[in-house]
Every structure is written in structure tokens, then in C-alpha cells.
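A common beginner's mistake is to predict each chain separately and then try to dock the pieces by hand. The better habit, illustrated here, is to supply every component at once so that their relative placement is modeled jointly.
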Amino acid sequence: MTSIDKNPVAPRVIVREAAAPRPRWQVWLIRPEVVTLLLLVIAAIVATRLSPFFADLGFILESSTYYIEFAIVALVLTIVIISGEIDLSPAAQMALSACLFGTAFKAGAPIPVAMGVSLLSGLVMGAFNGFFVTVLRLPSIIVTIGTLILYRGLAQVLAGDKSISGFPGWFVGIDYRMVGIVPVPVLVFIAASILLGLFLGITIYGRQIYQIGTSEIAAIHAGIRVRRIKMGLFIASGLTSSIAGLMVASRLGSVRYDLATGGELTMVLIVMLGGTYIFGGRGSILGTFLAAWLLVIIATGMTVANIAINAQLTIMGLLLIVSIIATNAIYARSQR
Amino acid sequence: MTVSAPLVSARGISKSFGGVEVLRNVDLDLMPGEVHALLGENGAGKSTFAKILAGVHRPTRGTIELGGKPVEIASPIAAQRLGITLIHQEPISFPDLSVAENLVIGQVGAKPLGRVRWAELAKEARRLMGLLNVPIDVTVPMRGLSIADQQMVEIARALASDSRLIIMDEPTAALTPKEVETLFKIVRRLREEGRTIIFISHRLEEVRAICDRVTIFRDGDKIETATTASLTDADIIRRMIGRPVADYLHRGTSHVGEVALSVRALTLPGRFENISFDIRKGEIVGLGGLVGAGRTDVARAIFGVAPATSGVIEIDGKPVTINEPTDAIGLGIALVSEDRAIAGIFRTLPVETNITAAVPKRIAPKGIIRRTVEKALAKESVEKLSIRLASVRQPIGELSGGNQQKAILARWLLAEPDILILDEPTRGIDIGVKAEFYDMIGELAAGGRAILLISSELPELLALSDRILVMSEGKLTADIPRAEASQETIMHAAVPRSGRHTVSGAAA
Ligand SMILES: Nc1ncnc2c1ncn2[C@@H]1O[C@H](COP(=O)(O)OP(=O)(O)OP(=O)(O)O)[C@@H](O)[C@H]1O
Ligand SMILES: [Mg+2]
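With all components supplied together, the output reads:
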């Protein structure tokens, strides 16, 4: 009860606008993921015309193992980009951690220990990136271009120009292990997609990551632990890269300093094709998941169609630019 | 008034956003040499109408004539060419460019490849800021200016454009009486030059002081256009809201308890020095002063956004360390920041997400967000503060300025802080909701919360505060008990003695 002498006021009726807001299906239709899905369907149809192989799910799953490690890292990269940062060093982290694994193995460490070394290195490399970005507050694009060169260089110093091989049979050939018709790496990708999708979609951390990416200053004012979350993301990126590095090592049966060279381009391409906004705040794991399959079909399709590797790169570059522009346009439209 | 042809005549203007009609069939004539107020509740459609004239939005229906000729105002640039300038409700600027650069950006007439003469640019910028009588260094970047200073730069930019129609969307919301007076001098001069000015404000006394005619909007309809003198405040409010508004009466200060927040010798060089005060539980302490006096900096320091370099903060008698807002929130402090566009809203995220942003534990006790709880909390806030929206899933950027402000208030009310710091909390909020909000603040204090209220609106400070602190040039200059507080005592303590600010009057 307040001591305020109010005039008798009728209970306030909040007048809402009469017309209904934009129907839900329209909102859905202009989501970039839907565009990715459409492209995926078109690509699948075109590819099936091109070669009957593509009608075979087993063939697609098999060919996907060349890209699936990048796709797994791209899932984490999606979250990093949504938070308003970027990490360009994962491919180099894959190489360095895999070389550390190989070197430890050559030095006589049992495989599990060598794997532990590799995972630990991923953690440290991620934390190193995170330190520059969150503590020294440097732009992540510059920091991770720097560490991209640094990590790759260290891998070369460590492993020289020779490849390290001779891993025991049980470690090699992860891409030939199947559950039904699904190779294990693909299974890992699917599981990671579901987990990270849930993380981003229904947990409070996921929510806060979108908020940070939308407005970091507002997030700080709302009491969100921006620096801690970003540090966590860079560490997650490092850890995932080292896992991906191990998967490559297993698939190839050997490691070399140039493992996964240029992989950062593929990863960024997947994330952008999936409709994640390059300036942060928007995007989804679903988009990246779909985009990974889109990339698999396009890349395999080009190989089947005998397109030269240089031309393939050009096409990938064009795709990257087009997808960034398209995503921007879609978001600008939904904002009017 | 002499009979002359209107400069602008808008006929049958309607505007819909995604199926929601927010302006309905508005007719309006604007005369040369008049200051014309647009009035209405939050979300009534004032800014939308202004943006249509300034080419930001295209009307869904309707025609606009300018100087007797029908025109298409297709873009802000087109509007500029036609001599129409809009001062936005939310200052939009390029934060990394200097004040001088921001002043000339977007001016028509510049050659695209022409050479930029930096010295001339700075000189012109200084002249413009001199007209406004504000001591802003034109070479510093926009980032870091207070909202009021940003607002002054926006105004200066409009002056530089030499337009026939200048639309000011809540230009005074963050200004103190001194700056408002300077602005009014300029508006009067523009009027004498025969220009037309649209003035949007929620402060009726300002409308009375400067506007020849008013147009009142309600829910997207134009209710009436009349000369200001022909309507009483009560008439205006009735047409705006459709009901009378209760006067806010101070609730008395019977229930003041222990000291909740105590700061001692707080100093941040260049911003404020040696600030000491206490706030007790149940007490509302006002903090007045001119723009740039350092009030916001003190609030930001207590909240950990930009901590002080020396000094002590005590909560419930215990010294605490606050390095970032998370720490402050953990200690039960909340800050409603003056800068809602940058430090408040997540523009593209839904209203509900914005409202619940500071209470993660309540919407996700185990880390997983409970949609139903979140939705319920958001809906409750929307009702309580009568936030006008189409859906709580709507991006907050689509709400009107005042409704965004209400959503940010709702966010911090949900957090149930023990110590609530409000920095210009009613910036852009309409008269009807303001009274309700004052009640809410009174109730919070009655419930034992300690409240620090920073406001440039003296009537607001006087109505709500149990005690008023005044800052001037980074120092506390007065601690005025309620009984002695008046506009004069506050302004007396607020005006700097050192002469850094020139005394107003030099401008006209
Ligand atoms: N871009 C947009 N998309 C959807 N709705 C919008 C958009 N811009 C404005 N609206 C809606 O139009 C209505 C009128 O908004 P407007 O900004 O004109 O109000 P206003 O009278 O200026 O209010 P205030 O006093 O709060 O500034 C509001 O209900 C708002 O939600
Ligand atoms: Mg407005």
C-alpha cells in the first residue's frame, strides 16, 4: 500500500496492435539454414544426374570421411563465430597436435599416452589463443592468423619434412570402422552436432553466447562472464582440433607437418555456407551440419566430374563469398 | 499567424510493419517558421512518422507534398537533398571517427574524391560546437562521449546541414536544463530564419516553452493538431492516454535503515575524484549535476564497468572488490545504464531474451533454459510496465525507444537487486508510465532497497529523492536534504566554478 492519493483509475488495458504479426512460416522461410537445405537438395539432385554413384548413400558417407574432420571442427568454429570472434588456427593446431602425438609415439610412449599429449597440446594452444584475445584484448582474427603460422611452424620444427608412421593396427583406419553403413568419424560428427546443437540451443551458455555476439558491451553490463566464456570457446576449439588431428592421423596412418594444410578455408566455408553471420550473434549448428553435407557433395561432385584442383579452389572461394553475401542479405532483409 | 502555404503537407500517411499497422491515415501540415511538437505515448508512432518524412521508412500509403509539389522521399540522402534532416532518437554515429568527422559525414555536396582539408574540417566543427556552447574536443573519437554529448553532436550535425525541415526526435531526453536552454535558443533562431522544426519530447514543459503547435498521436492515429496555448496539460494528457495521470506524491522517508552502500574517496583520474557518500536501505538518493559532471562515471565505477583506481566501496559495512559487472551483480547491485542502445539492448534478439538476460539462475536453474518460466517472467514484465509490442518473440530493436527502455528497466527489476543504480531511467518514457514507474521505485525503497538515482530531470530528482547529491566537474559539491532541495539549490551546486563551461547566454 502506498500513501498515494490516486484518482480512481480504471484498470489499464494494454491496447495491442490489431493485425497479427508476420506468420511463423514466413519467418522460417527466410532463415539462412533453409537456404542451405535447399542448396543441399539441389546439389544432391544435380550430383545424382552427374553420376549414379551419388544415389548411393554409402558412397557419400565414404567420401565424406575426407572432409568430416574439418566439419567437426567447423561445429565449434560456428560457436566461436556466433560469439563474435574467429579462430583461423584449428588446421595448424591439428597438425601440431598430431605431430606431437607422432613424436611422442616415436619416442616410445604408448598410444594412449601419446594421445593424451596431443589432447593436452590442443588445450594449451586454445588457451594460448584465448589469452591473447580475452586478457590482452587483441582482435582474434589477427591473433589466430599469427598462431596459425606459429603452430604450423612448430609442427615443421618438431617433425621435420618426413612423415611419422608405424602406428599399431588398432589405431589406424578409423574411417574403415563402420557402425552399419556409417563410418565412425561420421558418427562422431553426428553425435557432436547433436550435442553442440543442444548446447547452443537450450542451455544458458548457448543463450549467453548469442548475447555476447549480438552486443558484447550489453552482455558485460548484463553481468555475463564474457571473457570466461570466450576463453572456454577457444580452449574447446583447440581440444576439438587435436581430436580431429588424431582422426586424420588414424585415417592416413601417418602424420606430417603439412597435415590439414588449408583446412581453415574449408572450415570457414562450411560455417559460412551454413548461414552463420560473420559479425556474430546469429547462426546455428543445424546450418553448419547441413553445410558440411553440401560441401561433401560439391567437392566430391567436382572430383567425379574431373575438375582440376585449382579450379576447385576457385569455385570454393566463390562459394565462400557468395554465401557471406547471401547471409548478410537475408539478415538485412529480416531486419528491414 | 499569417496565412501562408504549408512547407510540408502529409496526407493519408499509413505505415505497416509486417502486417502490423502502426500509423493510420495521418494528415499533417507543417508551416514554415513553426516549431511543431509531436506528442504521444511510447509506441504511438511519433518516430515512425518522423522517419517517413526523413526517408528512413517508406509509407505504406499516403502522399507528401513539399512546398506544394508532391515528393517521393526514397532515402535519407533524398531527404537531405530536399532539405530535411532528422536528429535520431538514438544517436547513431561512427564511434571510431572523431567528432569533427562525424559532423560532416553524410553532408550532401561533398565531392566523392575531393580532398579532405582536416584543418578546415576541425575549424568548422569547432564553430558548430561553439554555437551549441558545449566544451567538446572535436578531435576525440565519438566513442567515449556521454549520451548527452553524442546528442549535442547530432544536433550540431543537423545545424550544419542548413535544412528547411529539421526533425528532432527526443533531443532533450538526456540533457540537463542548461543544455536544453542552449538548444532552445538555437531552435528559436532557426524559427526566425523561417525553418520548420518538428520537436518530439515527453516533457510537456519543454513543449510549452518552445512549440507553436502540437499534434497528438495515439496508437497510430492522429488525434488532434492545435496551437499549444489552446490546450492545458490535462487536455494534452487526456488526448494522449485517454485517462488522467495521478500526480506522484513523495512517499516519505520513515523506513530508512542501515547503510547499504558506502563509497569512500573514490577516484578515477580525469573523471571524478574523492567521491564519498552513503546510501541507506530504504533510501532514494538523487545524484544531480550537469552533463559531463562525472555522474555516469561514478555509477560505472561502482558497477565495475570502469572501476575506480583508488577508494573503497563497502556493502553492508564490508569492503568489497568489484572488478567487473558480474562481481557487482553477485553483490546485489544493478545498474540501469543511460546508454540503452549500446550497453542495454541486444538489438536483434527477442524481447523475452532481453528481459531475462540478468537472471540466468531463474530461467535456467540447472543450466537448461526453461522456456515456460522465461516466457512467464517476460509476459509478467510486459504487463507490469505496459510494454507495447506484437509478441515477446519480436526482436527488441523493433520496439519504440520508450518501450525498449521499459524492457531494460524490467530486466533489472527482475534481478531484485539490493542496491539499484538508475542512470537516466526514464529517458524517453511517456508521462503515463513514468508515474507508474515512480510508484515502483517508491515501493522498492519501501521494501528496504537502496537506490541511487541519476537524473537530468530536476522535477524527477526532487519528486523521488530523500536526499540529493550534486556533482560538478568530477567532485561532489553538495549533499542536500530533501527539505532544502529545490531547482535553485541543485543548479547552484551544479554550475562549475572553474570556468571550463562558459556561462550560457554567450550563444544567442
Ligand atoms: N522496424 C520496425 N519493425 C516492427 N515494428 C516497428 C518497427 N519500428 C517501429 N515499430 C512499431 O511501431 C510502433 C510505433 O513506434 P514508434 O517508434 O514510432 O513510437 P514512438 O511514438 O516514437 O514511441 P517512443 O515515445 O517510445 O519513442 C511501435 O509499436 C513499434 O513497436
Ligand atoms: Mg520514438
